[in-house]
Design a protein that fits this description.
By secondary structure, the protein is α+β, with helices and mostly antiparallel strands. The chain is built from 25 helices and 28 strands. The protein has a 5-stranded antiparallel β-sheet, sandwiched between helices. Strands 13-12-16-15-14 form a 5-stranded antiparallel β-sheet, with helices on both faces. α2 packs across α3 and α22 runs parallel beside α23. It is elongated. The two termini are about 80 Å apart. It comes from Sphingobium agri. This is histidine kinase. It catalyses: ATP + protein L-histidine = ADP + protein N-phospho-L-histidine. Its EC number is 2.7.13.3.
């Protein structure tokens, strides 16, 4: 658009006048000659005068054609006073430089932000920033415009826009715009410019928000009308003090109302303060008066003896503000508090305390009373003090105090931030930290317990080999093994909660899993609960462990059954949730992607709101003692999260509860289904030959594994840790298979195997551990290794050893 205007201007000032220039000059010369002949009566003098005019015009035309740029400069000398006036009327600072890099024009605001009027780009002492601005200037000369964002200048952050300008585009225009950072001050701006600001104006209250530098950021209509003469005036960025005047008696007036104006009462409300825990800050130490403020101006009628009427206006204003504000007298009695203050301290609607000390714990009451007395007398100042509220004694809070004068009984303004949302976030972070710690503890306990169960189950298997059914000890041994397997199931739940259990993920369809578990659910639910199953269309495949998903459905179904003691309906649904639907849900936790959802809902009693946030915590249960471990839903949560999914609980008292699980659609499903899977080779023979090196730091596990492998025909060499294992490997004996624990003292299993493969690259390796295989494979980072989870039986160890030996490369 700029280039079009330029072309149009050149056409109007150059081409159109050139067509009429010669006839007009000839006509002017003839008329001049006639006038001279008429006046002098000499034809020669008249002809000479006309010829002189034509010669001067010819010389000027010749100069314009020979030196067009210099002629243009003669015609158009920039009027920088107009540019500066336009710049000063805006909220940005501007500067203009020429091709020689000289500063030819700058606004007053530029001089305030950059004292001494430095020439861009040399506005900062930071070498890197100056180079960035210089690069941007070169880019503007080349491309026409450039931009640098977020430069720091004191407390300001500025965006710099550089553009080539001028009739010949031989100047650079530098525009410095303050970065607008959304914060709590935006609420005050909306309040002043909205209906609340208009209502304050109708009540006779002029309100202005200023920054720490004293410039106006926002104002209500009443102030604009009286200070600038128009309710739509733009005075943003102007100095507030320029609109005010003080007479010889110290009274405050509006500068525009030079005579006949009423004196004004000024109330300052700090909007941002520098908090110093454990004490307060005075106005001379970086307190609230150095930051943004809300200024309230009220007419003070002549002869007014007090601030009672003004105080009523202030109370009306404070009740509208979104900040927690209260006023106290010199004795510390609370005169007024707004709704936000009541919410912040946890007061009921009709409750009003007598003193600020009634709101804090006993230990802080004396400090609060002393602070109120400090600010009620002496010079006006503001500051903060750290307190602990009575309703939240564990959460320190900053109470801001400011001394006020001229408002009758009111002497101190109290400000308290409503931090209920912040406290909620803190509790959520603390809860997440606690859950993470419990998960790590559960995983560690399960790992150690798996070692014990491995020894118990292994010894039971060895004893059962010496007994036959019908022996007096056979049933007892079988019972011990059965209880050990139950204990192993409990450790799997702990590992599931801590997201450390071993998963065997497959690409599957959720309706198939629901169909497989439906018969089991009908037996678990009983006669009084009706099972309803429905499936949606176009469901995407998911990748998960089918056995673990069945466990999830069973756990949710059992909980739903217990929530319907008199019977009801259990509904299981599967449906597709495309990415567009997820975006419409505006769910902060759930990323936008394609999901397949599983909903399990019941018509039971529902879950109270105070319990709903705790249902996924481990060992939390509402069932009677001995009827629940509290691990059911925490196990569900762990399995879903380890499978890459999300679970949400919804409930309403008396209307049942719903659990919705979102599993991401597996994008590689088609590719994986297209590859035919090889049928596993079934082997029943577990006897073997060869030498096995067994590395295990737990004596009981090592003893059981050694006996089990020896009974299968292997020669077994043992070591207590990785260092001893390397010594055995270096002994010169042929090792056919290395079986090792993963986590061991001194040197762990993966470190040992990494060093062993330098000398034995084809050595088969079988790792055994109580931790999850997926977690270990990420940390092991070794190829061609097998894995055996603990606890395991003698037969499982023999099968794993046989399969690991089968991976050994054969000589061609």
């Amino acid at each position: 658009m700029a280039s079009r205007i330029k072309r149009d201007g050149e056409a109007w000032t150059g081409e159109r006048p050139s067509r009429l220039a010669l006839p007009l000059l000839i006509l002017a010369a003839l008329l001049s000659a006639i006038l001279v002949i008429f006046a002098s009566g000499n034809a020669a003098v008249g002809a000479g005068f006309g010829a002189m005019i034509l010669a001067a015009a010819a010389l000027l035309s010749w100069y314009r054609r020979l030196f067009p740029e210099e002629a243009a400069d003669l015609d158009a000398v920039p009027d920088w006073t107009v540019a500066r006036a336009a710049a000063d009327a805006s909220s940005m600072a501007i500067a203009v430089t020429d091709r020689a890099g000289r500063l030819v024009c700058a606004s007053d605001l530029f001089g305030e932000w950059f004292p001494g009027f430095p020439t861009p780009p040399n506005i900062t002492a930071e070498t890197g920033l100056a180079e960035s601005l210089a690069d941007a200037a070169r880019g503007a000369w080349r491309d026409g415009e450039a931009r640098v964002e977020g430069i720091a200048q004191g407390a300001l952050r500025l965006d710099v826009d550089i553009s080539r300008t001028g009739r010949s585009e031989d100047y650079l225009l530098w525009r410095f715009t303050p970065v607008r950072q959304p914060n709590a001050l935006d609420d005050v701006h909306r309040l002043l410019t909205g209906d609340a600001g208009r209502q304050m104006g109708e009540a006779g209250i002029m309100a202005v928000m200023i920054g720490g530098e004293g410039r106006i950021r926002s104002a209500n209509g009443a102030f604009l009308l009286r200070a600038a003469g128009r309710i739509d005036a733009n005075i943003t960025g102007r100095d507030f003090a320029a609109h005010m005047r003080v007479d010889d008696k110290g009274r405050l007036f509006l500068a525009r109302e030079e005579s006949g104006g009423l004196p004004l009462r000024l109330l300052q409300v700090p909007l941002r303060r520098a908090t110093q825990p454990g004490g307060y800050q005075g106005s001379g130490q970086g307190g609230g008066q150095d930051g943004p403020m809300l200024l309230l101006l009220i007419d003070e009628p002549a002869g007014s003896a007090g601030g009672t009427s003004a105080l009523s206006y202030i109370e009306t204003l404070l009740s509208l503000l979104p900040f927690g504000l209260a006023m106290a007298d010199r004795d510390g009695r609370i005169l007024f508090l707004n709704g936000a203050f009541s919410r912040a301290v946890g007061l009921k609607r009709s409750e009003k305390p007598s003193y600020p000390g009634d709101l804090v714990v006993r230990e802080d009451q004396a400090a609060v009373a002393d602070a109120v007395r400090r600010f009620a007398v002496g010079p006006q100042m503001s500051g903060d003090i750290a307190i602990r509220l009575r309703n939240e004694p564990e959460e320190p809070t900053a109470l801001s105090l400011a001394g006020v004068r001229g408002l009758g009984e009111a002497a101190v303004l109290l400000s308290l931030k409503d931090n209920s949302e912040e406290s909620k976030l803190k509790r959520q972070v603390a809860q997440a930290t606690k859950m993470q710690a419990i998960g790590q503890l559960a995983g560690g306990v399960a790992h150690d317990f798996n070692n014990i169960l491995t020894a118990i189950i292994g010894h039971c298997d060895l004893m059962l080999m010496r007994h036959t059914p019908g022996d007096s000890d056979y049933d007892d041994i079988q019972q011990i093994k059965s209880n050990s397997n139950r204990a192993a199931g409990l450790t799997r739940q702990l590992l599931a909660f801590s997201r450390q259990q071993t998963l065997r993920p497959q690409v599957l369809q959720l309706p198939d899993i629901v169909a497989d578990v439906s018969n089991l659910l009908k037996r678990l639910l009983g006669e009084s609960v009706k099972l309803e199953v429905s499936h949606g269309r176009n469901l995407g495949a998911v990748r998960a462990d089918p056995g673990q998903l069945e466990q999830v459905i069973v756990n949710l179904a059992v909980n739903a059954r217990d929530a319907m003691p008199e019977g009801g309906i259990l509904n299981i649904q599967t449906y597709a949730v495309p990415a567009g639907k997820v975006r419409e849900m505006r769910q902060e936790i759930l990323p936008a992607a394609d999901y397949t959802a599983l909903r399990v809902s019941d018509t039971g009693l529902g879950i109270p709101p105070d319990i709903l946030s705790k249902i996924f915590e481990p060992f939390f249960t509402t069932k009677e003692l001995g009827k629940g471990t509290g691990l059911g839903l925490s196990t569900v949560y762990g399995i879903v999260k380890q499978s890459g999914g999300y679970i949400f609980a919804e409930s309403e008292l008396g209307r049942g509860a719903s659990f919705v699980i979102y599993l991401p659609v597996y994008q590689g499903a088609d590719m994986e289904q297209a590859i035919p899977s090889k049928a596993p080779i079934k082997r029943s023979e577990t006897w073997g030959t060869g030498t096995v090196l067994l590395v295990e730091d737990e004596d009981m596990v090592r003893a059981v594994a050694e006996r089990a492998l020896s009974r299968q025909g292997y020669k077994v060499l043992t070591a207590n840790d990785g260092e001893q294992g390397l010594e055995v490997l270096a002994g010169g004996e042929q090792i056919d298979l290395l079986i090792s624990d993963v986590v061991m003292p001194n040197m762990d299993g993966p470190s040992m195997v990494a060093r062993a493969r330098d000398t034995h690259p084809d050595l088969p390796v079988l790792f055994m551990s109580g931790y999850a295989e997926e977690q270990l494979r990420k940390s092991i980072d070794l190829a061609n290794v097998a894995f055996l989870p603990k606890p395991f039986s003698v037969s499982q160890l023999a099968e794993a050893a046989r399969d690991a030996l089968a991976m050994r490369p054969t000589a061609e």
